[in-house]
Amino acid sequence: MQDNLQSSSYKELEQKSKYTNMFLRWFLYFVLILFASYFIFPLYVMVVTSLKTMEEIRQGTLLTWPSSLNFDSWLVAWGGRGYGAGDTFLRPYFWNSIKMVVPAVFFSTFIGAMTGYVLTKWRFKGDQWVFLFLLFGCFIPFQAILLPMARTLGTLGISNSVVGLVLVHTVYGIPFTTLFFRNYYISVPTELVKAARIDGAGFFKIFFKILLPISAPIIVVTVIWQFTQIWNDFLFGSTFSFGEAAPIQVALNNMVLSSTSVKEYNVDMASAIIAGIPTLIVYVLAGKYFIRGLTSGAVKG
Amino acid sequence: MFKWLEKNLPKIVMAPAVGLIGWFVYGFVLWTLYISFTNSKILPKYELWGFGQYEKLWVSRKWLISVDNLLVFTALFLIFCIVIGIILAIFLDQKIRAEGVLRTIYLYPMALSFIVTGTAWKWILNPTLGIQKMFIDWGFENFTFDWLVNREMAIYTIVIAGVWQSAGFVMALFLAGLRSVEDEIVKAAKIDGAGLFIVYWKILLPMMRPVFFTSFVILVHISIKSYDLIVALTQGGPGISTTMPALFMTQAAFHKSQVGLSAASAMMMFMAVAAVIIPYLYSELRRENAR
């Protein structure tokens, strides 16, 4: 269907005079490439800057190619300079983020799969309202829950800890994961489940034997979505943690804002790349699933 | 006992999710609402105080500036994201070579955090070594581009970075929308002699109304919540010229010991989001039920 649409509009173009056609095509590519360079520009500048020395940065422009491939700023950003106080670097915070992301993604995905399963295959009276009840959680501005959350984490004794952030991200991920699984399972024929029930299969057996084996795509979408959201979070990280328990985005921000000594833009850019690279890799490897999550995470259905 | 357990197993499995969301979303929002009606300072107090915090909020110069900034930012952010998104989607829809590569380039900023984006743009926009220097070195000696440190203009740097981050997303939504249109409709229009421009302007774009609606809702939602980008790019400065409601709320709550006031500002944000989201959810549900 897509190809037809494209080829018909292409044919339409062909019918016009050859010159208009050629001009249009060139114009099309010109605009597309212009925008592509606008989108690429910051990434290019980040990479190039991170490979320069401060001397080179002061002499050249944003676009100047570095004189040599110099990864020193990356090493400094990752592991520091090796002297004591005031030497901040990303390595410990990178691990904080990993320790936070893995369990939070696992728990929120698991809970979402279960609720999505019940909401579509074990329907009960009022289940639509329950779904709406959960769905609304996708949209609340988190400012409306920051104050009580900070107090609750304090009461539970897990404020300023990775455990606390795992709890926060798991809870506020549930509305999204539920949405994903619910919308996926709703298209699985209910007859399959009914037949299995008649054969005496129970709640969990049906889930593990029938639904789980066909859930790979939606699990990938959900895991990527949750991973990206949690890895990139700053609001929760900066509100509920500081110092050694901070996740990487908070550490990056602190590093860039620290006003000690001379500003080292090359180290700043290397740090930004390190903080951005995990999600970027996921995007490049699994872009299709990333986009599917984006469009259905925001658009219902 | 077992029978009961078996019969109610689905509901038992649902219980944790419903309980967690009930407590951490609804309970917490209600708590914040309550606190916004008290005179809480460093610590929450539970004695009711009426609308005092809201009165204080709406005469606070900082809050008024943040609302003003939010309106300016939202308007520009919406216009640029939607216009760029539509142009890219339509152009990409013309059987373009390397479409996949271009799409990947347009959308990759969505995979980055606003902190990473903000850090990059802060470096690019800084007047001493960034774009301004680039143009001066290229021979434009009087070129100035100091928006980042200019009170009047700093808010627009947030627009630049925000649009850069989100325009590709709108492109993806519209491209998906355009590709789901039956090509019979387009063919019929062409038989009637409609040119390509007319086909898009008169037929396809009007059919994209739900996509416009969705993009609008998502972008407004992003802009009301914008916090990270401002922290990374300007910290609300110079002065308080780029402060926004989300920043106001966290500063009042965690730096200035104005718990009641911050709760009131949070509730204002909540109501703004609800005003956009509730009609949206309502129309989505109606569409689903109509199917």
Commentary on this structure:
The complex is a heterodimer of chains A (301) and B (291). With 301 residues, chain A is mostly helical. Chain A has helices at 2-15, 18-51, 54-59, 72-79, 91-121, 127-135, 143-156, 162-185, 190-198, 203-211, 216-232, 235-240, 248-257, 265-285, 287-298. Chain B has a single domain (53-290), classed as MetI-like fold (Orthogonal Bundle), CATH 1.10.3720. In chain B, helix 8 (183-191) packs antiparallel against helix 9 (196-207).
Any descriptors?
heterodimer; A: about 300 residues; mainly alpha; MetI-like fold; 2 domains; 15 helices; about 75% helix; about 0% strand; globular; B: about 290 residues; flat
Query: CATH first level of chain B: which class?
Result: Mainly Alpha
- N- and C-termini, Cα separation of chain B: 41 Å
| Largest sheet properties of chain A | none
Strand content of chain B: under 5%
Low-confidence stretches of chain B: none
The number of domains of chain B is 1
Binned, the helix content of chain A reads over 70%
Beta strand count of chain B: 0
Give, in order, the helices and strands of chain A.
HHHHHHHHHHHHHHH
CATH superfamily of the largest domain in chain A: MetI-like
The overall number of domains of chain A is 2
Structural class of chain A: mainly alpha
Main structural class of chain B? mainly alpha
